[in-house]
Design goal:
single chain, 386 residues, alpha+beta, Thrombin, subunit H, 2 domains, six-stranded antiparallel β-barrel, 10 helices, 17 strands, 24% strand, EC 3.4.21.-, Trypsin-like serine peptidase, hydrolase activity, Peptidase_S1_PA_chymotrypsin
Length: 386
Amino acid sequence: MSAGSTYERLLGESQSGGLESADGGGAPSPPDPERLITQLSDEISRLEEHLGADADPEARNLLIQGAQDALQEVADQGADARLDMEDVARLEAVVHSDGTRPVLFVEDDFFDVTAPAAANWAASLSRIQPELRTVCRAVGRVNDPQSLLGYQGTAWAIDDGVVVTNYHVLEAISTHPSRPDGSFGGELKPGVAVDFGAEVGGGPADRVFRIRRVLGVGRAGAPECAHPTVPRVNFDGLDLAVLELEPVRGRPFPTPVQVARGDDAATQGALASRGRSVYVVGFPGSAASTTPDVFAELFAGVVGVKRLTPGVLTEGRGEVDRDERSWIISHDASTLGGSSGSLVVDLEAEGRKVLGLHFAGVPDRVNWAHGLEGATPELAAVIPGW
């Protein structure tokens, strides 16, 4: 496969050391493999110190050597570089460490602002610290005791005791799932729950709530509207499920997040626009990942922990090809399998409104989310008083 967006990030943003710019400033210079590998090695060493654990030596050597080879291929061949999926994963690790699109571990409902990889984003994220903490507390891991890794995706609090996730995550935690006429048919597996802790080092243990029932699901897309190249993706459908949680005496539910609405007179449903800075919070790295989770390869203990990844919207509502309902947006924040159900949050203005529900992507190409301004009527129909 070609180097794709990873190549563009390395040659464009990482060379300039900043975020997106409207003017590319001419042809980008080739990446400096030595400098980028040094940054990657330094980031691994910092994580070893921070996590109090040594990276697997064999995995570390494979990552460094693989990244060196992939970077040299990009430096020599440019956009014509040919890379396999492991090469792309190694380049993504470089991007994560050089500050372009970092993957930041959530700890105590925030992140380590001193991490070198966070440098380009630390000021913007710190500016909204109270709002960001509220968002991080509202994001939970969908636990499934019967699954290989013990979880299936991400959910987040949209109302008191009510969470939103993807329909395909609900399918994974159910038996005989179906959604005839927009209603849910099937039964939840025993023991499925949402864990709003699940941070590096364990996080708070008193934030787990069992899933009580399904309040509603998004409509299935018309079969003829199925994406021609990406399995199980249909922009005519709404990959969404709303779940009610079981209360626990003495344990408050997380504060719900604010959601951008299509009927907001102030924004007129146009907040999720191209180029807007965003951040994604969720639990990347499930067994369904098509791109390897390099951090999990190095540190076994980081599988299924909460992470924050900043980026920008690459397409706003109405701009995504084949989206006739104008309820799809795309973003370039780093994601993996397991990120399904993550929220995409506005980083500008108040920095706290949820713009989208991440549901799918093509590795190193595009990440798709349902723009919730476009899905406001569907949400209002299943959430009492919303």
